[in-house]
Amino acid sequence: MIRDQETLQLLLDSVRRFVREVLLPHEREVADTDQIPPAIVAQMRALGLFGLSLPEQYGGLALTMEEEVQVAFELAHASPAFRSLIGTNNGIGAMGIVLDGSDAQRARYLPRMASGELIGAFALTEPEAGSDAAALRTSAVRGHDADGDHYLLNGTKRYITNAPEAGLFTVMARTDAATPGAAGVSAFLVERDTPGLTLGKIDRKMGQRGAHTCDVIFENCRVPAANLIGREGAGFKTAMKVLDKGRLHIAAVCVGAAERMLDDALRYAIERRQFGQPIAEFQLVQAMLADSQTEIYAARSMVLDAARRRDDGHNIGTEAACCKLFASEMCGRVADRAVQILGGAGYMADYAAERFYRDVRLFRIFEGTSQVQQLVIARNMIKAAHA
Fold it and tell me: Which of 48, 112, 157, 277 could form a disulfide with 216 if both were Cys (CB 3.0 to 4.6 A apart)?
């Protein structure tokens, strides 16, 4: 539960003001240039946004899950690119270290991640292993030389968020070729300047300009054995724990983005006049507004409930999948209604509705597609029924 409501409110007010006064005025610039201005990144560092969920002993704010999703609600009112830059440090880019890393690994990396000096990335997806993460082919072969124990990594990771900016990659690789599926997968920390690690060209995406992805290629990339997270064969378990938290965070982002789109659509409907009255007076427009508000309220309630359950120590694998599934699909429906309410204007790049319509489509794909969430939910239900 919330540990200090007054302190949290001060943080939320600061984030809300930062979104309104700094991020919103620069949305068009980020969309046009595909870059977040360095001055804004510096302000994000100063606000502590890169360390929201990292432990206090390493310079983070150590927010509870409930506190974190409330910050995500606010940040997501601006272009998703801004949230994406800080999101991996608070989620999949650092949580493997927080949850299963050694004391030495935490001391080496977390302070720089909390300050924003170091950007983290999570390298799981491959050209032939996305939703079927257990089928990954990137290999890690253990060896020993004059410099000590190490692993040689070989393989390619695809669509890795923040890879062009990242200084540290949490990499899932197969350490046991004889063991099929998830059991042979291990997690490694690989620094950007490690010989044998190269980056592909930045991907051209449908939306979310300013948030970058690219391939990460490993060719006999020598990683010290000390950079193994946990033990061999435990990487997939680490990944699943990381993704449970990440899915809940993305669900919160979907809620915030949907609130922004509905705010814009409502404002337009009140100001736009047809047949002598605001289109907000037309019942079919009101139906779209009401449906959107109802679904946003439902998604927000789900996210807060699941976050509180996680803070109370419960396993929220099923709840996180439910939140990710419902909130991302809801966000897509709100985006479609927002464009419909704006009509022709909603199809024009001059309005945020057009950009958000493209941006939020990704939410139904990454951190596990909607179809994967359905499988997770159903399989957990069946497992519980047999318990």
Answer: 157
DSSP characters over 120-138 = EEEE--BTTBSS-GGG---
Render pLDDT for 265-275 as a digit per residue (tens, 0 to 9). 999 999 999 99
Q: Which two tokens stand for residue 277?
A: 């009255």
Domain boundaries 120-233, corresponding CATH code: 2.40.110.10
The answer to whether residues 188 and 179 touch, using CB atoms and an 8 Å cutoff, is no
Look up residue 338 and give its two tokens.
């927002």
Q: What is the mean pLDDT of residues 289-314?
A: 97
Domain spanning 237-386 has what CATH number? Answer: 1.20.140.10
Per CATH, the architecture of 5-115 is what?
Answer: Orthogonal Bundle (1.10)
- Percent over 90 (pLDDT), the chain: 89
CA distance 371 to 377: 10
Name the residues annotated as catalytic. 367
Give, in order, the Cα–Cα distances in Å from 157 to each of 29, 204, 276. 30, 16, 56
Residue 219 has pLDDT above 90, yes or no: yes
Cα angle value 129/192/145 (rounded, 5°): 90
| Torsion sign over Cα 301, 307, 312, 318 | positive
CB contact at 8 A, 327 and 259: no
Averaged pLDDT score across all residues of the chain = 95
- One-character DSSP codes across 290-335: HHHHHHHHHHHHHHHHHHHHHHTT---HHHHHHHHHHHHHHHHHHH
Q: Which of 329, 334, 339, 333 is nearest to 302 (CA)?
A: 329
For residue 223, CA distances in Å to 93, 145, 154, 187, 310 come to 18, 12, 11, 11, 33
DSSP symbol at 179: S
Domain boundaries, the chain: 5-115, 120-233, 237-386
For residue 140, is pLDDT > 90? yes
CA distance 76 to 90: 15
Q: Compare 183 and 276 and report the one with higher pLDDT.
A: 276
SS3 175: coil
List of E strands, the chain: 120-123, 139-145, 148-161, 168-174, 185-191, 197-199, 213-224, 228-229, 273-274, 277-278
